[in-house]
Amino acid sequence: MLRHPSPAPNVREWIICGQPSTRVVRGVIPPLPRPTRGPKGSESSTRARNRWVARIAFARLEARICVRLPEARGISRYTPIGQSTLSSQQPYGVYRTARKSAPERMLKSQPVPGFETRRSPSVAGHFLLNPDCLLLSNTLESGVRNMKTGANPARRVSVVMPVRNALPYLDASITSILEQSFADFEFIIGDDGSTDGSRARLIEWSKKDDRIRLFLGEGGGLGPAGSSNWVAGLATFPLVARMDADDVSGRCRLEAEVAALDADAGAVLVGSVYDCIDRAGRVVRQMERHSLHDPYSARHPFPHGSVMYRREAFETAGGYRASCDFWEDIDLYWRMAKLGRLLVLPEVHYSYRFNSGHSRLKAHRRKVEVALDLALRCSTARRNGEEYERLLTEALPAQRRLRPSVFRMIGQLELWSGARPKIIPRLVMHGKLRFNRETISAIAWAIWAFVSPHSLRTTAKWIARRRERHSAEVLSQPVEWRPMQRPE
Q1: Among candidates 206, 305, 197, 302, which has minimal Cα distance to 247?
Q2: Cβ atoms of residues 238 and 279 within 8 Å
């Protein structure tokens, strides 16, 4: 498989083929040489080429793809596409579309699974392929409509969602996006090597809605920051909405977030308050808006999957950093807050799901603990008015003891996922235990969570309801959150 210099070099498009058994890689495409006319009846004749012409739509200008060409074409270098324009010239290439498992045969007029049949105005039954504008995409209907008729010229939103082993919650997540009241968007889904059947389910979804652009990664293992950067780098429109593959978005989420960013030109990111659901979709924790009354609250008031940001600001901030894996979203908020305002919608437009498949629970436990300890140390440095970037490259002993709050944070995920947290052994073995409030609170919480997790969940719900009752002020407008040092 050919590799290419994209944010995720192991990505391939699953359904397009250039020649039998030739795969397609999402990225860039080289100019195709004009085929030579062969003797009558040969495979290189005009008639043979026309039989091979695929039902391929010219998608958006920003979509880019790489094709691995047969060695006979003598092309070993890949260059970016120029400006895309529909051509009425004779086809330059011989290409077809086929499923991965389809037999290697000529496709003359057979429908291709997942693709619509469309006709070229100048060569009946075929699309014309021009080496300067060959674009392959699952977004056939919208791509052809946009470029041939000029409809939908103001599409502004890209929804991005990385996926890795997201069953059985994947269907609910995708459905919540496709049924948004704000329907004019592209939906970029990147599968980072799922092994639980998520990939097959995504392929099925990509056939049902032309707004979905599906990218499949080989092998996986990009990590939280790597997979987030991958899908974010594939976005083509100025507003980018994040979505997590196990959560659920409210029907008016995109509409409300677009309106908030349109109303405030100085805002670079907006998120929504949320409620928490369990594996069955039942609400286990209500929204908590009390922190919205304190714009300098250290607690971020929205989950990562609920945010929408301006792509230009995201790129200026530098995107997600691999050194901040498992808290890459918090690090991004801190840096984007230097570029503009961060807004919070006071209405619930997002449901965050607690489940055993959370990235912090599935990853290597020690790796997650070290990452969260780094997050706490960086947060402390910021509160003290210090720069925390130096901590990201600081060399520390591999077996150092960690702050007790780290183990409590992991235990919270286990508790609300319906499990009995068993963090006491690791807290004793790896925690930096001292006679202070943090240590005493962590030990007491760990014992309570292990002995009676149900009563702990009930008490936490009761406290949340009391906080919500005391913050009775009705908020109807987006609230600014300033994750920076509190002014003296």
Answers
A1: 305
A2: no
Beta strand 212-217 with 11-12 is antiparallel
Structure tokens at 173: 């997540």
Backbone angles phi, psi at 110, to 5 degrees: -75, 140
Length of the chain in residues, anyone? 488
Quote the CA–CA distance of 381 and 17 in Å, as a whole number: 52
157-358, what's its fold?
Spore Coat Polysaccharide Biosynthesis Protein SpsA; Chain A (3.90.550)
Q: What is the pTM of this model?
A: 0.69
User: Rounded mean pLDDT of 310-329?
Assistant: 96
What tokens were used for 184?
């004019």
- pLDDT-derived band of residue 9, with 50, 70 and 90 as boundaries? very low
Which residues are CB-contacts of 459 (< 8 A; sequence separation ≥ 6)?
Answer: none
Instruction: Give me the residues paired with residue 479 across strands.
Output: 344
Q: What is the pLDDT of residues 335-357, one digit of tens each?
A: 999 999 999 999 999 999 999 88
CA dist., res. 87 & res. 107, Å (int): 22
- CATH 3.90.550.10: which residues of the chain? 157-358
- Helix extents (H) in 264-395: 311-317, 328-336, 359-362, 365-383, 389-392
Q: Per-residue pLDDT tens for 169-214?
A: 999 999 999 999 999 999 999 999 999 999 999 999 999 999 999 9
By CB atoms closer than 10 A (0-12, 13-18, 19+), residue 218 is middle
If we measure between CA atoms, which residue out of 369, 486, 475, 356 comes closest to residue 430? 369
User: Each residue of 239-250: pLDDT tens digit?
Assistant: 999 999 999 999
Question: How far is 126 from 122, CA to CA, in rounded Å?
Answer: 9
355 Cα distance to chain centroid: 19
Q: What is the DSSP string of 16-61?
A: EESSTT--EEES--PPPPPPPP-STTSTTSHHHHHHH--------T
161 and 240 Cβ atoms separated by less than 8 Å: no
List all residues 6 or more positions away from 460 whose beta carbon is below 8 Å from its beta carbon: 285
Give the separation between CA 420 and CA 437, rounded to whole angstroms: 24
Angle (deg, nearest 10), helices 404-416 and 437-451: 30
- Whole-number Å distance between alpha carbons of 6 and 13: 13
Give the residue among 232, 376, 406 at the shortest CA–CA distance from 308.
Answer: 232
For residues 190 and 8, is the Cβ–Cβ distance under 8 A? Answer: yes
- Which amino acid is residue 444, in one-letter code? A
What is the number of alpha carbons within 13 Å of residue 156 lying toward its C-beta? 14
- Give the SS3 label for residue 96: strand
Residues 258-313: tens digit of each pLDDT? 999 999 999 999 999 999 999 999 999 887 776 776 666 667 889 999 999 999 99
